[in-house]
Amino acid sequence: MKDVNEVFSELEKMGVIDVGHTNGTLRDHLLGTYNILRRWNCSEELCLAGLCHSIYGTESFQKQTISLNKRNEIRELIGEEAEALVYYFGAHVKEHFWNYSIGAITLKFWIVLLEKQRS
After folding, report:
1. The whole model's pTM is what?
2. Are the C-beta atoms of residues 34 and 4 closer than 8 Å to each other?
3. What is the maximum span of the chain, computed from C-alpha positions, in angstroms?
4. For residue 49, with 0-12 CB atoms within 10 Å meaning exposed, 13-18 middle and 19 or more buried, which class applies?
């Protein structure tokens, strides 16, 4: 697993960063996600997953900036577990996720729960 600057540099080389995204660029969105997770004191691995969370495309961001054929390269870059989170985030259907959540459980709750399960 590399540090955030190395990961970001590799994403730039792959052409991910300057893609348009809601209210700005994907660069802004991915860095913003990374910084939120950092402020929540999440592990670096989880923060790197946040940095890459939509690179394969998502239900609402349908631009696939990196082919699924490059999953091994992303795994080497951010680690196996982080890449798996990125993959699952892109593959999930929001409606199913929210239909099966209980009440007003926040994203932070899910992240904290994941972190505790890993400990």
Report:
1. 0.71
2. yes
3. 41
4. buried
What is the residue-wise DSSP string for 95-117? HHHHHTS-TT--HHHHHHHHHHH
25: DSSP letter: E
Residue tagged 């505790």 (tokens): 116
Residue 25 bridge partners (DSSP) = 20
Burial degree of 43 (CB within 10 A; 0-12, 13-18, 19+): middle
Burial bucket for residue 21 (CB in 10 Å: 0-12, 13-18, 19+):
middle
Per-residue pLDDT of the chain (119 residues; tens, 9 = 90+): 678 889 888 888 887 766 655 667 778 888 888 999 999 988 898 899 999 888 887 665 556 567 888 899 999 999 998 998 888 877 665 555 555 444 444 565 566 666 665 65
With both helix axes pointing from N to C terminus, report the angle between 71-78 and 4-13 in degrees, rounded to the nearest 10. Answer: 160
